[in-house]
Design goal:
With about 90 residues, this protein is α/β, with parallel strands linked by helices. It has four helices and three strands; from the N terminus they run αβαβαβα.
Amino acid sequence: NRYLTDLRTGSAGAVCVKHLAPNAKSVAFIGTGVIAEAMARATATVHGFEEAFAFARSPQKSSSFCKKMSKELDYPFYACATAEDAVRN
């Protein structure tokens, strides 16, 4: 079942964020597929990010992911042209 796989993966990432980056104000996603969505949702439940940055090989996918997650999680997501740009922010 894909739903449970995504939920478990997202939850594991959320636990890591909670304990390894408790003071982080932003987060970066390299890749914007279903796993990134699961990670964004799960981390939002345990950490109050102020902004997020995302990179995907397809600019359209980055933009779509950012619009969807910004609306759903109520903090801004910014599409980046490179992975380096995403993690530098």
